[in-house]
Amino acid sequence: VLDAATADATDPLAHLRDRFVLPDDVTYLDGNSLGPLVSGVADAVHRAVHDEWGTGLIRSWNDAGWVDLPARVAARLAPLLGADPADVAVTDSTSANLFKVLGALTAGADTTARPVLLSEQGNFPTDLYVAAGVADLRGLALETVPRDALADRLAAGDVAVLTVTEVDYRSGHRHDVAALAEAAHAAGTRIVVDLAHSTGALAVDLPAWDVDAAVGCTYKYCNGGPGSPGYLWVHPRHDVRTPLQGWFGHEAPFDFSPEYAPAPAAARFLDGTPPVLSMTALEAALRLFEGVDTTSLDAKARALTERFVALVDERCDGLGVEVVSPRDPAARGAQVALRHDDAFAVMSALIARGVIGDHRPPDLLRFGFAPAVVRHADVEHAVDVLVDVLTSRAWDDPAHRRRPTVT
Amino acid sequence: VLDAATADATDPLAHLRDRFVLPDDVTYLDGNSLGPLVSGVADAVHRAVHDEWGTGLIRSWNDAGWVDLPARVAARLAPLLGADPADVAVTDSTSANLFKVLGALTAGADTTARPVLLSEQGNFPTDLYVAAGVADLRGLALETVPRDALADRLAAGDVAVLTVTEVDYRSGHRHDVAALAEAAHAAGTRIVVDLAHSTGALAVDLPAWDVDAAVGCTYKYCNGGPGSPGYLWVHPRHDVRTPLQGWFGHEAPFDFSPEYAPAPAAARFLDGTPPVLSMTALEAALRLFEGVDTTSLDAKARALTERFVALVDERCDGLGVEVVSPRDPAARGAQVALRHDDAFAVMSALIARGVIGDHRPPDLLRFGFAPAVVRHADVEHAVDVLVDVLTSRAWDDPAHRRRPTVT
Q1: What is the pLDDT of residues A171-203, one digit of tens each?
Q2: Which residues on A lie below 8 Å from B132 (Cβ)?
Q3: Distance CA B133, CA B117 (A)
Q4: Where are the alpha helices (DSSP H) in B187-232?
Q5: N or C: which end of chain B has fewer CB within 10 A?
Q6: What is the value of ipTM here, to two decimals?
Q7: What is the distance between the alpha carbons of residues A89 and B371, in angstroms, rounded to a whole number?
Q8: At A253, is the pLDDT very low, low, confident or very high (cuts 50, 70, 90)?
Q9: What angle do CA B152, B154, B159 make, to 5 degrees?
């Protein structure tokens, strides 16, 4: 393994780090939860507020191109998915988008032959809540099984749709989505994948994976800003309807026709008026990825997580932490989770020292290695601080036990 | 009728106008489509981008109170609805919110006894698209009848839910919602009202009206910014489930429980991660209404529209325009529509002269009189310019016939 300085000096993505606005005293390992501010975004939002809204007023729907924002942002996001922009819709939240694509793909399902909507135990909660809601609507039963049981469960042949998240939000376990899609299709099952912890960090190629639909989030590795819009992708072989039919998904919204007629391809999954300020921030943030290949992001994410795991193995033996993420880098996303009995307090102590990761209950320390943001030197520094916190028991202080709302 | 100068000098809401950032050369009569920028909003958004996101990063979910934004904004919006904040959720788009409340109120409907989802012909298109989608999901038939036939249609007793918009987006016709709710309930029908063209301009009292649910928009008279979040209100007598079950609507999102359990009251209708930048703009914009009674907004809207109608009657005779909006001010919202054979070109000529209203196909000029924004003097000026455009045939110029995407 190269030393960190050499790895950074030879990193083909090193220039991306300079595009972020990050406080000097922070080592940010939480880009998997909220990506940091990209330079240019603040100016774009300022312009949208002052000039476009404040001065242009209603005229900006045309003059500033607000009406084309969903298509423009989809065009910027599509390369990160290996996708045709026409098959991508940037809109709503990840939850709402999962609802829409699951609703679309279960319409007219034969609930006698295929009564099951399948997911994975431990999938991100909102995915399970959404799936439960769709199952209720469609007369399906939501069933969840452990990761290793998915293939067998599919083989029973009674599953209408499988929905999984590529990278587990806690462990960082990464599915082989192409293999899962093959198994699903062999069993006559459709598959919808959530790429919340993939897009902007890992190599994604939706058409090659041949899934039926995908959804994802843009406020993590895409750095769109807090609560920035979600997106969805639907395989062009599906000419399906969204249950949530709104005017921005109409083929001609400004004809004000009383009859709904879906827009072509994924644009039909737009619904309400797009959130212009949020979309503007996201559009500006996505410029970061111009000309960046997702395989290079993937390779750097792997190198960073390998370095972190190796350093933890080497330096944290006997300090009460254990690597929970898969040790096979091909089975791991851009994050690493460590288990510790007092994980919340340890993370609080790390954050107090400028190393920002996060905590997931009950006992996980979660570190994200956004490949556009994190340097190899940051990984070394984070482990230095982690070792210091663990050996000094700095975390064993009541100040680090106060629980806020969001953990 | 008072002269405009005296009316403005004695207007108890006159101070609100000074809170808006408006170009000097604009007379803005399109606050019913996009409310103008409120002072303080730009600074709040700047802070959210630079300080909260850029510097605070993930910590701002707690430290900057992002996690409480939906509740804080609901508390600011509730007085404009006469509502308890607990019954209000600020989230998603108006379209998505209508989908959720219609979905919630039609769950378990007896589709044999009550097979109809009823709406009004000419209701805003997205409301009809959403209703058609929900009807499909629930095995109901969407039926639309003219405004005057709603009461009779309800009396047939086979309508599960009625959904109408209080103020018609074209004509400005205003329903007596309380009377409609009474008729609906007498027929065993639930009623959902869209307040997109009401909230922030008219007197709204949802509990007194006794509707079952309401939805609305915050980028019009609430000045939340382009595409700002929608909202919904559900009568506290209804303990219903949303079809779109997401994690921010869970009773304890950060417990990451695999089982969905709805949050209390309307908060269960939240779903995805809230759009922080858009919510921040809206929160700042709603400060405008602190201490403002909706009956005073309603009274001023009425005075402004009455002045406009009177001046058009007096000065536009024989100039090719006709008042389409109801002449009874009690049956009219805060807007007035005029019909003209070349409405698009006339509006284009008005906008070129700084009087910004909008056009709705095929032949309507639409003028909005946001009571917090518009002065009586603005009404006089707008009619001056209208008379000038019509008498000079300034609109009859090819430059005013180029159609943009959004009209």
Answers
A1: 999 999 999 999 999 999 999 999 999 999 999
A2: 245, 260
A3: 11
A4: 206-209
A5: N
A6: 0.97
A7: 37
A8: very high
A9: 150
